[in-house]
Amino acid sequence: RSFGFAEIGEGEKQARVDTVFHSVARRYDLMNDLMSGGMHRIWKDAMIAALAPPRRDGWRMLDVAGGTGDIAFRAVEASRRNAEVTVLDINGSMLDVGRERADKRGLSDNLTFVEANAEELPFDDGSFDAYTIAFGIRNVPDIPRALGEAHRVLKPGGRFLCLEFSEVDVPMLDRIYEAFSFNAIPRIGQVVAGDAEPYRYLVESIAKFPRQRDFAAMIEAAGFVRVNWRNYSGGIAALHSGWKI
Ligand code: SAM
């Protein structure tokens, strides 16, 4: 299914994504809860449990498309405030909200916020022990390029983890999910954020994102090994994992 956004070019795609997140930044956390029925919290907790940030000084993680900080905050807390986490996002409005939230929670000492593009990371090779990206990769126009950058900035032995909406593999749930996302999500967007169109774009980007197996092959093509995935909530979301050796 499609709302007709399929044929836009990469530059236009990024511009559209940026407009969505500038306009929604202040209400982003509320929208997440409404649209996922709170489930995004459970998936994010599961991602951090899989990562198991060590409770030792000097462990460095990069959270790309980190937005308002959900993944980064969880990682800092799980490491008992040992981890040094960089939150990178292309959108300054999302990062502003993230900085304010970090201050309120007293987590700022462990966090650095960087405005940059996932396709061109402003870090040296081999800088991080872990690279995470949650509900971000499908917004990036050139996914192979972003995966190549992930591989480059990781240290040998570094871990790659990507949480993303994926293909539902449970009969019936797939239909219910499609009906919900194509009808309800734009309506929730209209009511809460005052505009349905950005949410149509987001729903379509989910529908177009490669299925689990195909995305795993893209991660392997970027150079990662031992790539696998696990589904959450019947495949509504999936966590892909890989290692740089
Ligand atoms: N990771 C956060 C979470 O799970 O709550 C935020 C996810 S939000 C759905 C997607 C984020 O990706 C937005 O903050 C957006 O600005 C960011 N983004 C989109 N394109 C990007 C790019 N090319 N490079 C870096 N971040 C990007």
Automatic annotation (TrEMBL):
Domain of life: Bacteria
Keyword match S-adenosyl-L-methionine: yes
Pathway recorded for this protein: Cofactor biosynthesis; ubiquinone biosynthesis; Quinol/quinone metabolism; menaquinone biosynthesis; menaquinol from 1,4-dihydroxy-2-naphthoate: step 2/2
Enzymatic reactions: a 2-demethylmenaquinol + S-adenosyl-L-methionine = a menaquinol + S-adenosyl-L-homocysteine + H(+); a 2-methoxy-6-(all-trans-polyprenyl)benzene-1,4-diol + S-adenosyl-L-methionine = a 5-methoxy-2-methyl-3-(all-trans-polyprenyl)benzene-1,4-diol + S-adenosyl-L-homocysteine + H(+)
GO biological process entries: aerobic respiration; menaquinone biosynthetic process; methylation
Pfam families in the record: Ubie_methyltran (PF01209)
Sample GO molecular function, one term: 2-methoxy-6-polyprenyl-1,4-benzoquinol methyltransferase activity
Residues where S-adenosyl-L-methionine binds: 68, 89, 117-118
Protein's UniProt keywords contain Acetylation: no
Keyword field: Menaquinone biosynthesis, Methyltransferase, S-adenosyl-L-methionine, Transferase, Ubiquinone biosynthesis
EC number: 2.1.1.163, 2.1.1.201
HAMAP family: MenG_UbiE_methyltr (MF_01813)
Function in brief: Methyltransferase required for the conversion of demethylmenaquinol (DMKH2) to menaquinol (MKH2) and the conversion of 2-polyprenyl-6-methoxy-1,4-benzoquinol (DDMQH2) to 2-polyprenyl-3-methyl-6-methoxy-1,4-benzoquinol (DMQH2).
Family label: Belongs to the class I-like SAM-binding methyltransferase superfamily. MenG/UbiE family.
Protein name, per record: Ubiquinone/menaquinone biosynthesis C-methyltransferase UbiE
Organism: Roseitalea porphyridii
